[in-house]
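Onboarding guide, step 5: your first structure request.
Type a short instruction followed by the sequence, for example:

Predict the 3D structure of this protein.
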Amino acid sequence: MGNCNARPATFKPKNLPMEYPKKYAMYPTRRRMRASERRTYKRDCKNLLESVAGENPFEGDEETANNYTEAIFSISIKAKVLKTYMDLIESSINEECPVNGHIQLFCNEINNLSHLYEVFFRKSIVSVDTRVEERKEIARAAYRDIKNLTIIIYLNKERSKTLLQSVMMHTEFQTHQAEKLVEHYEATFSPILKEVLPDPNAPRIHRTPTRAQIIAFWEEVRREKESGTLGTPF
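The system replies with structure tokens like these:
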């Protein structure tokens, strides 16, 4: 018996071009970090916090811009998680239920949020656009305020309404700053991306075109044939 999973002979066109059109070629977009960027990554939290954003130039690669974006939205998500645990603690205290477990989870999220801000500060060393310092200033205010959340550990011993209100206020501030950071990003983020193309004679990542590229190319050829505008496709 034959292989049931074998592809049919008509899977791809028979007359593939020897040289594939450049617009369907895939080029690498990753780049190595500059030495100055690596040195900045090794800074401690205090130096990261106080340093000016955008110290290093932007190379125009999409990966750096995506990493910067991911850092911002990770902060937003974690701030919402922090608020969720705060609501659980508040409801547990109001119902006179144990809160030790919720407080431990809340403290874990404090550490996670603090770490994400440090990641964002490191991503901000590259001037992905002209507003990186403004966003970092928003993040600085939130990062400095995180330490005020640690007073929640005293709720294990004393169910103080004043203490609870204080923690809730600082949690709301974290949520507000995270939302403000995202809003600023969505309203102003405008990186100048460059099409990073290597030497035409350099080896490509994919020496043979993928199925999606083949289909896209021959669909375009078919449309040009039907419209009568077909020239030399390659």
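Each response can be followed by summary notes, for example: The chain is about 55% helix and 0% strand.
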